[in-house]
Write a structure and sequence with these properties.
Elements (H helix, E strand, L loop, with lengths): L3 H11 L3 H23 L2 H18 L9 H22 L12 H8 L7 H20 L2 H12 L4 H8 L3 H27 L1
Length: about 200
Amino acid sequence: MLDADERELVQKLKARDEAAFSAFVLKYQERVFRLLLRMLGDRAEAEDLAQEVFISIFKSIDGFRGDSQLSTWVYRVAANHCRNRIKYLVRRRRQVTDGYEEGDEQSHANAAYARPAAPDQLMEAKQTEQLLQEGLLSLDEEQRELIVLREVEHLSYEEIMAITGLPEGTVKSRLHRARAGLREHIERNERGRKR
């Protein structure tokens, strides 16, 4: 399942090579952070948790057998940490919707354009991004995870199955319900704006 480069990286990580770990973090930090931010909706929580995820991976790399791609294993570790953090936050009765700061994905998207967007376009994009994030947070944890893995991270069904441990039919049916829930949230919000 692993290509030669990944096999070499894993061997170096298992040997506790700090330069390899730095390269590993650089390779995966954006993907892990994006997943955590979308799942938690809180930038500070996502940053803290991302550090915990990489520390956990460094400590547990010996347990990686190479049965899946390294990226799949990284997503699985990040998703498990995220589920635990959400449970912790719920127990502490903390709102996971506090503190979501748009700008992470949008700044990368805007950087791709040579000409800056007009202020009204930026405002509309920011409102759309906020609406989507609110919609994601309105879904239950499992639906949110599936939407983020499929629609934000663009992972295949096979990768999602490996990360979540769910069979393909279950992934597809739950994704269908999650998309419907997200669409319902957006439509409800759009109706509210038109009034």
